[in-house]
Design brief:
This protein is of the alpha/beta class and about 425 residues long. It contains 13 helices and 20 strands. The structure holds inosinic acid. Inosinic acid binds next to helix 4.
């Protein structure tokens, strides 16, 4: 059974939603394994736009079962709204959307602490999505969080437990942050109502994934964010609070390594980053603005303008190696269609030396300047290309260079936002 893992190769927003959607047809399961409503997966089908934050992108295929894995932190208010929006669109969600009992809850106090924490950091803020992700993972690691399984408790018990947690959070809010406490009883009562709605979706992940473990059911692992935002391997501290790299697929689902098949890294044909932190190949000024407009680079979750830049092969190679990628999918190639020259950062330079290897400290990275290799642009539209041979020669040269530099075959190229705007290249793009 070839259970594919989809991982962001850059700083998130690589277009994973479209790829997961394209690859989940006919599968038994799509599994989200980390993150929460900080993710924003946009999928265009039949002229319709779907933006998903928590629910795996596989949900758009009827018959595919979706699990929000135990590695996630889930805002139950946001999940209810997302499910209701999908049902309003006429999608049958119940009976095929499941939530691991071991996933943690994002509570209103987490969102509040996320905002207050960012304000305290001032100029050193991370630039989070404000969805309470860091504080919710903090509660998990501190062993004080509420879990989705708690939604199955008798209403009285859940209400009591929630009030206890909210009161403890209120102490922090007023004593540490000098902020207003939150209304404990009202929030706890709302949670009890949400539990009636979401409780039936909560499952024991070990039990429901037995077929995947046995190899009789297929699964696709849907990563959120990207390798450079991984809590351990990214540009710490300018990262998210989960493992968005391949290890997260195991810890976030409880499935053993033998269940992982192909490991595909998704990379945009250029780079973007939202929030703060080093980004050596960033384009400032007009060039960056033009790329942002061409690519529609505004956050699906927060609407924030994304920082844009050239493809960073130093970071890209690092991501390929850290995840052990068996294949790469390049997205948004068409966004570069009008560029007279396309650049790739192939090394970094600091005051002292040239670096070919990705540095493990954001402090070093922030002093790195990119060393570029230039490629002539193709200056032709690629949105209608469906085979590798349809692509202009200059675009193919660019892809071949990326394939060699990343050290993994490019197995797909996306040339537009619609489902069918894909070129599948299972044997790579090299000649
Ligand atoms: P948090 O995950 O909301 O705590 O944000 C931490 C960092 O990760 C910030 O720089 C966010 O902009 C970034 N981030 C979180 N989720 C995403 C995503 O889905 N796409 C891109 N960046 C993200």
């Amino acid at each position: 059974m070839d259970n594919r893992v989809i991982i962001g190769g850059q700083w998130g927003d690589e277009g994973k939603g479209k790829i997961v959607d394209a690859l989940s047809e006919g599968l038994d399961w799509v599994l989200r394994y980390q993150g929460g409503a900080n993710a924003g997966h946009t999928i265009h089908t039949g002229g319709k736009k779907h933006v998903l934050h928590l629910v795996p992108s596989g949900v758009l295929h009827e018959g595919v079962r979706c699990l929000l894995g135990g590695g996630m932190v889930i805002d139950p208010w946001a999940l209810r709204d997302e499910i209701m929006a999908l049902e309003e669109e006429g999608l049958a969600v119940r009976g095929r959307l499941f939530v691991a009992s071991t996933a943690h809850l994002v509570m209103p106090y987490h969102r509040r602490m996320d905002e207050l924490g960012e304000t305290r950091l001032k100029r050193k803020s991370i630039g989070t999505t404000g969805r309470g992700i860091g504080p919710a993972y903090l509660d998990k690691i501190q062993r004080t969080g509420l879990r989705m399984g708690d939604l199955k408790l008798p209403a009285d018990n859940l209400e009591r437990k929630a009030i206890e947690k909210i009161l403890a959070a209120n102490e922090l809010l007023s004593d540490f942050y000098q902020a207003e406490p939150l209304p404990a009883r009202t929030i706890a009562e709302e949670l009890v109502v949400l539990a009636r709605f979401l409780g039936p979706l909560v499952v024991n992940p070990y039990d429901v994934l037995r077929g995947v473990r046995a190899g009789t059911e297929s699964a696709l692992f849907e990563g959120a964010q990207g390798t450079m935002l991984d809590i351990d391997h990214g540009t710490f501290p300018y990262v998210t609070s989960s493992n968005s790299t391949v290890g997260g697929a195991l810890t976030g689902t409880g499935l053993p390594p033998r269940c992982l098949g192909e490991i595909n890294g998704i990379y945009k044909a250029y780079c973007t980053r939202v929030g703060n932190g080093p980004f050596p190949s960033e384009l400032l000024g007009e060039q960056g603005d033009a790329l942002r407009e061409a690519g529609g680079e505004y956050g699906a979750t927060t609407g924030r303008a994304r920082r844009c830049g050239w493809f960073d092969l130093v970071a890209g190679r690092y991501a390929a190696d850290i995840n052990g990628l068996t294949g790469v999918i390049i997205t948004k190639l068409d966004v570069l269609d009008n560029q007279p020259t396309v650049r790739v950062a192939t090394a970094y330079e600091t005051e002292e030396k040239r670096l070919e290897v990705y540095p493990s400290f954001a402090e070093v990275l922030s002093r790195c300047r990119p060393v570029y290799r230039d490629f002539p642009g193709w200056e032709k539209p690629t949105g209608g290309c469906r085979r590798l041979t349809d692509l202009p020669a200059a675009a193919r040269k660019y892809l071949e260079f990326l394939e060699t530099g990343l050290g993994a075959l490019i197995v797909g190229v996306s040339v537009g936002r619609e489902r069918e705007q894909m070129i599948w290249t299972p044997t790579g793009v090299g000649t």
